[in-house]
Amino acid sequence: MTNFRTQIWILFAAFTLVFSGCDQKVSDEAGTTATSSTGSGTASPTILGTPENSVQVGAAYSFHPTATVPEGGAATFSIVNQPSWTNFDATTGTLTGTPTTSDVGTFANIKISISDGGASVALPAFSITVLAASLEPVTLSWTVPQQNTDGSSPTNLAGYRIYYGSTPTNLNQVVTVEGNVTSYVLNQLAAGTWYFAVAAYNTAQVESALSSVVQLDLTG
């Protein structure tokens, strides 16, 4: 199988890291259902929904549960442990807000419930993690492979795939870069530790092994 030799480096904040290539490839608590906690009739309110468990600084957050009440009932929503940067609508149960830099962190054990004046029911507790805003763009650069691992020339090179993620063993995000290029800019990385690797692929979509994994720590 075609297997290009590659190497990758990162240009960030005028600092260059150079890594040699190699041939080795390298629940949230929230639920969607709820059960009645109190009430005396044969029918109880229902509330459903799975809130997003993270949001980036400066981005809008919104969660609107789906709820029903027995015929003739009047729905009233309530919330426990509401994040300080959010607004809550007691009529619709909608939780909205846009966090700022001072809100970075995890807001845990949030509970949204609905009552019809008699019975009440709540979603399972959930948390929202506010992530730091994206930093300066990160430029990934690599060398053009000069040969396949069997020594032949890679005459059918079609492009590259950049794999990255928050752990070196789970590079679960990928960007495909077509053509004869040797760099790519990522603009949407939040603060934290990131890992990157590059693989080349040919016109038959046969992919090489990954390059060495590169680590980069982005701090706010």
User: How many discrete structural domains?
Assistant: 2
Supply the CATH class of the largest domain.
Mainly Beta
Strand content: 35-45%
Q: Give Rg in angstroms.
A: 25 Å
The beta-strand count equals 19
The end-to-end distance, rounded to whole angstroms, is 43 Å
Q: How would you name the oligomeric state of the polypeptide chains in this document?
A: single chain
Ranges where pLDDT stays below 50 over 5 or more residues in a row are 1-41
Specify the CATH architecture of the largest domain. Sandwich
Tertiary shape: elongated
Question: What helical percentage do the residues reach?
Answer: under 10%
Q: What is the assigned CATH homologous superfamily of the largest domain? A: Immunoglobulins
Query: What order do the SSEs take from the amino end to the carboxyl end, as H and E?
Result: EEEEEEEEEEEEEEEEEEE
At the third CATH level, what is the topology name of the largest domain?
Answer: Immunoglobulin-like
Describe this structure in words.
The chain has 220 residues and is mainly β. It folds into two domains: 8-26 and 134-218, Immunoglobulin-like; 36-124, Immunoglobulins (Immunoglobulin-like, Sandwich), CATH 2.60.40.10. The chain has strands spanning 8-12, 15-19, 36-38, 46-48, 54-56, 61-63, 66-68, 76-80, 86-88, 95-97, 105-115, 120-122, 126-131, 138-142, 157-165, 173-178, 183-186, 192-202, 214-218. Strand 15 and strand 16 (173-178) form a beta hairpin.
